[in-house]
Inverse folding.
């Protein structure tokens, strides 16, 4: 029984931060119709920024709990600085162009971010242990888990509900949904499409950086973390369906539980099982599990 509970909890913890990252990826695709390959680099930038921000603010003599706020500030700073540079300075020049061309552009941005992080932060690993010590250990049945790890599940739920409610219960969200469904009609009615695109892309960047920032206490922040994240994030959104928030949640759960099961029962298949699940979904439902049915245009 303990092994089943362990697999479930480990799967949920892995799925939580992965969902936050995939949520930003699927949001950008849903609004801008762009497969943002640079998303992994933005995740890494968030992790590096948090790894620098936490000890920086700690040197001011602030309470240890402020490290959580420092990670949030680091992610927000990445979004405020980087999102306008990429979206306004580059991506807007390619709107309406071939999807493969835009994918190659975002891949080029990914490579630039990868080298830029090495130049700015160096190649030595960073370790951020302070936030993970804040919540102590939590007893779950006969098992003990780090409270911070379990808190990531709550953070993922807050992010998912926040984005969903923002899209469906606020005026700017309803305008964004209108832009998603009918961009030409929205523009004709006076909607500032460029501003909506910038806001959506900025939120996507923030979610990628937030996932990286709050994952930094769990990992060694070093060059290369962006590669594995973007590949697995693509698997999540492909399984769940591009542009679907519930799909990103279910996809993250499937990937997290599948990986956790493999870690304990077949460690050599830890990565393979994720792509096996993705292939199975693509065979039987190529559009993903939660992609809404599209009306055929004549």
């Amino acid at each position: 029984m303990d092994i089943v509970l362990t697999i479930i909890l480990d799967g949920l913890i892995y799925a939580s931060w992965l969902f936050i990252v995939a949520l930003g990826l699927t949001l950008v695709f849903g609004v801008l119709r762009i497969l943002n390959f640079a998303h992994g680099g933005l995740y890494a930038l968030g992790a590096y920024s948090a790894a620098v921000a936490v000890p920086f603010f700690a040197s001011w003599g602030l309470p240890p709990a402020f490290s959580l706020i420092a990670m949030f500030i680091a992610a927000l700073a990445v979004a405020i600085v980087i999102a306008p540079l990429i979206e306004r300075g580059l991506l807007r020049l390619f709107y309406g162009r071939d999807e493969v061309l835009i994918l190659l552009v975002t891949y080029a941005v990914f490579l630039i971010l990868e080298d830029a992080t090495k130049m700015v932060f160096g190649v030595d690993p960073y370790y951020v242990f302070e936030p993970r010590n804040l919540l102590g250990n939590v007893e779950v049945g006969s098992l003990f888990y780090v409270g911070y790890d379990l808190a990531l599940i709550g953070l993922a739920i807050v992010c998912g509900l926040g984005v969903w409610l923002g899209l469906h219960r606020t005026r700017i969200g309803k305008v964004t949904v209108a832009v998603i469904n009918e961009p030409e009609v929205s523009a004709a009615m006076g909607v500032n499409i460029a501003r909506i695109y910038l806001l959506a892309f900025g939120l996507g960047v923030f979610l990628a950086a937030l996932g990286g920032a709050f994952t930094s206490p769990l990992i060694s922040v070093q060059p290369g973390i962006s590669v594995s994240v973007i590949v697995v994030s693509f698997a999540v959104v492909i399984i769940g369906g591009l542009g679907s928030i519930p799909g990103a949640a279910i996809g993250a759960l499937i990937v997290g539980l599948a990986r956790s099961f493999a870690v304990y029962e077949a460690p050599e298949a830890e990565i393979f099982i994720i792509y096996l699940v993705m292939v199975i979904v693509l065979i039987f439902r190529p559009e993903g599990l939660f992609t809404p049915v599209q009306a055929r245009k004549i």
Observations:
- The chain has one domain: 2-226.
- The CA atoms of residues 137 and 146 lie 4 Å apart.
